[in-house]
Specification:
alpha/beta, Aspartate Aminotransferase, domain 1, Aspartate Aminotransferase, domain 2, 2 domains, 7-stranded mixed sheet, 3-stranded antiparallel sheet, binds pyridoxal-5'-phosphate
Amino acid sequence: MRKVWRAVLDQIPVYDAGKPLEALRQELGRDDLVRLSANESPLGPSPRAVEAIRREAASAHLYPDGGATALRTALAAHVGVTPQQVLVGNGADEVLAILAWAAFEPGDEVVVPEPSFEPYTAVVTLMGATVVLSPLATYDIDLDDVRRRISPRTKAVMLCSPHNPATTIVRGGPLRAFLESLGAEAPLVVLDEAYRDFCDDPDCPDGVRLLERHPNLLVMRTFSKIAGLAGLRIGFAVGTAEAIERMNRVRAPYNVNRLGQVAAVAALDDPEHLARTRQLVLEERVFLTRELSRRGYAFPPSQANFLLVKVPDAPAARQRLLAAGLLVRDGAAVGFPGHLRISIGRHQDNERLLAALGTRG
Ligand SMILES: Cc1ncc(COP(=O)(O)O)c(C=O)c1O
């Protein structure tokens, strides 16, 4: 038989998202199993989004608006840009893939902090471009190191703030200095702000506000976290109209489904729900930070809706939590062996977590 599959696929493992929650609940015989491994919303979607989905369901036989006009218009008003500067994807995951299809080719280099959100390296590798890794300085993106790795071949730099899985932010001053240092022939700087809504550090930059001065920026955000719509897969990019126009050429004609589009518009129309979600996460983050510290655990200060906690034996601690009905991520799977990545849950889930984790031995 002819060789069909691309050799590069040998370098790309299948993404292991774990078993579906329902299957795990059945397997463990625990209806009360709570997933704190995927950084989902502890409050769920806005009732307005649920109602919009219900209303729209009867139109499921009709293709969605391929241009996602209403959603892009609402998003543009929400973040303060024009609709031409917004691209919507089937999750930020797809936005990344669209970017890669539109921008990366063999010979290009893309600087990626290591560790970071796994799909960055996958999309670059898949396009035949070269990943240039920039190690984190413990838990922080090291912008000086990233800068040193930029060469004339560098097509893009991937930054993530707050960082998944390290929970830290790139600060405003250093980010602006980094962007200024790139000069006229700057590569694309992708700023993944999937968790930005959970920042309360006044020094957390807003990528969209930096766009005017730095047109080489592309900001990525998602409805999966603050808006609680992970199951509908809605992510978006904000950039210059020119960047968005280029990316639009490679996306599938109907890449964002009908239910997702109306739910996302309704979510933006419910600022109280977004604020409630943010408040819950911030309050519970303070609570967990204090209580875990009191129990002897160490972790970087989180600006996200999850914590990266150092533990003596991560696989054993994960099993202990699973036995208590709490699913968390072993840090080894995301580049931090000896840690657990724990999403911030509802107060009762966080109480259960503390009880099951106990004092650091
Ligand atoms: C840093 C980061 N970027 C992007 C995404 C993808 O978001 P989406 O659910 O919109 O595909 C995630 C999801 O966990 C993430 O952690």
